[in-house]
Amino acid sequence: MKALFNIRIALFTNAILFxxxxxxxxxxxxxxxxxxxxxYNQITRTVCKADNTQSYEVYLxxxxxxxKKWPVIFLFDSHGxxxxxxxxxxxxxxxxxxxxxxxxxxxxxxxxxxxTLDILINDAQKxxxxxxxxxxxxxxxxxxxxxxxxxxxxxxxxxxxxxGAGSPELNPQxxxxxxxxxxxxxREDFNYDEVMxxxxxxxxxxxxxxxxxxxxxxxxxxxxxxxxxVQWFQFNAMKDELIPKDEQLLKQELDSTMLRCENYLxxxxxxxxxxxxxxxxxxxxxxxxxxxxxxxLEEIENLEGYRAEKQKEMQVKYxxxxxxxxxxxxxxxxxxxxxxxxxxxxxxxxxxxxxxxxRQMYKRVKGFLGIVCYSYTxxxxxxxxxxxxxxxxxxxxxxEPNNSDCFFYKAQLFDRKNKPREAADALKxxxxxxxxxxxxIKGTFSTMVLQLAL
Length: 454
Fold this sequence. Notes:
Blueprint: H1 2-24, E1 44-47, E2 55-59, E3 70-76, H2 82-87, H3 90-96, E4 99-103, H4 113-127, E5 130-140, H5 142-154, E6 159-163, E7 180-186, H6 192-196, H7 198-202, E8 209-214, H8 223-239, H9 247-266, H10 270-284, H11 291-301, H12 304-333, H13 336-352, H14 356-382, H15 386-399, H16 404-416, H17 420-432, H18 438-444, H19 447-453
Parallel strand pairs: 3-4, 3-5, 5-6, 6-7, 7-8
Antiparallel strand pairs: 1-2, 2-4
């Protein structure tokens, strides 16, 4: 009787576990691996011995010891926030045993990037027991481009994760030392098409690459997404016989991929289902038999629903290109009243649109306008074109009312017009909205503005 009771309990437990697995596959690229509480180490700051103006944040997995060599990932945030970058990789560090190194100096517009990279890597290699045959790089936005640059520059980076940025300058035909590329972007990110375009750029080159979309904007992807990316590095290391094959992990992840695919098909989300098959094929080919995935992908691509969804995707992409073109041309030939009306129309369309793909497209257009405002405003201020700078700042404030760069530029404009109080107020807003480059602030503004603002 007791044995029968235990069997029933086991069956009930397995049923609940399977139900939870199905739920977990409804959106994120989650795994069939059991989720266990992870104990984390502290992130610590290290000042480089060869140059004390350079520093980085380091995370060592709890199993770290100097008795063996560990794979390492160098991380680059677009604003030089090494700790923020490392936070997204702690889970991956613990699950797979990686050292994470986040630069505090590498950031957008850095003129001494080569020096920073050389100092960072040399110091980290001396300070920690890392495996030079398994060095990787990852970054967000401009940091993603730094990761790509580092791989091309050194020739000894095994793979990169580029988030929110593609690698348009990368010509695979001219590079002798190949590296794996995992490119990921939010579906609301203005760089989404650039990242997804990596597939055409790398197709038929023999390079290993992956392009992944997630539901979000121009931002660091979640820790879960970053763990998936590092897991892809693990699979490739197995293919290269750098680490033993983990049969259990591979089988569990293959089953998880099939579950996600079926779940998307049940919801008539054909492109997402096909993407799961493609991701699985790229991940497991050479490690497992992927005939089942190839067959499922072929079946999906022959569905009328898939073809209709692809046609709609092309139409949305064309509309996005037209909107970008119209807005870009309007920076010079439309006044601020027109911009106010059109941007309100765009906001209304975004809020009221029921179709997720179209709504995400509108958000990409808005993000695109933000980066154009940043570029045009900076150029106008550099060229001392006050009229254009004022107009661009006016548009900028409507597009991104909480953008720190917008108010930094606004403060510059007031300072040049000898209006220290107005400049100080704008600078205070820039800082409140997250502007952190104190060296640039102190090197840009007059003494009076700094005294009033800081």
